[in-house]
Amino acid sequence: MIPTNVPRRRSGVKALVTLGKRVLLTRERRRDGSIYHSLPGGGVEPGETPHEALARELSEELDCAGAIGKQVGSCSYQHRSIDATTQYDLYAVTLNDVPTPDSSEGIVGATFHDPAALPESMLEPLAEAVSRLGVGDGIAAHGLDIDVVLSD
User: Fold this and answer.
1) In principle, which of 32, 67, 98, 122 could form an S-S bond with 118, CB 3.0–4.6 Å?
2) For residue 144, what pLDDT is reported?
3) Distance of CA 20 to the CA centre of its chain
4) What are phi and psi of 145, to 5 degrees?
5) pLDDT given for residue 77 in this prediction
6) Closest Cα partner for 20 from 126, 150, 123?
7) Which residues are 46's β-sheet partners?
């Protein structure tokens, strides 16, 4: 017999976008009105590749496109609002446009933050992943160039 209290597993993708030594975080509103910080991204839909899903999420959440590079990390997140655990893969991304948060998607802000001083409302597994990656000079040591490119 299969237990019924086991959360379902989902696949997700998150964008790691940096500007110098700072990382782009979204400020998001939950259904209950509470605010949290995250990396841009979300779930992978059936039939999508991780790159397709991340491109879709960047368009939906931030109304921008980007060059999606290598996977640079991963983490698992047990959701508060749904009965699911998502395994997020983190990808280096270079944005082609200025990010414009879409409030209809629950995104109420997008700003760059110092990884050493992430907001307390940052989702813990993602905060740990950002800390482990050593954004900025540490990422360069991994051979990745993921600085954001903003165009007019």
Assistant:
1) 122
2) 32
3) 18
4) -110, 100
5) 86
6) 150
7) none
Report the distance separating Cα 23 and Cα 115, nearest Å.
7
* Per-residue model confidence (pLDDT) at position 3: 53
pLDDT value for 139: 38
Q: In what order do the strands lie in the sheet with 84-95?
A: 41-43, 8-16, 84-95, 66-78
For residue 126, give both structure tokens: 């993602």
Cα end-to-end span (Å), the chain:
58
pLDDT along the chain (152 residues), means of 10: 65 93 92 92 96 97 94 86 85 92 94 92 91 59 31 26
3-class DSSP state of 96: coil
Classified as helix, coil or strand, 13 is strand
Three-class DSSP labels, 37-93: EECCEEECCCCCCHHHHHHHHHHHHHCCCEEEEEEEEEEEEECCCCCEEEEEEEEEE
Q: What's at 45, amino acid-wise?
A: E
How much is the pLDDT for 152? 25
Whose CA is closest to 78, among 124, 27, 129, 25? 124
Q: Measured on CA atoms in the order 78, 81, 83, 89, is the torsion positive or negative?
A: negative
Whole-angstrom Cα distance, residue 35 to residue 138? 29
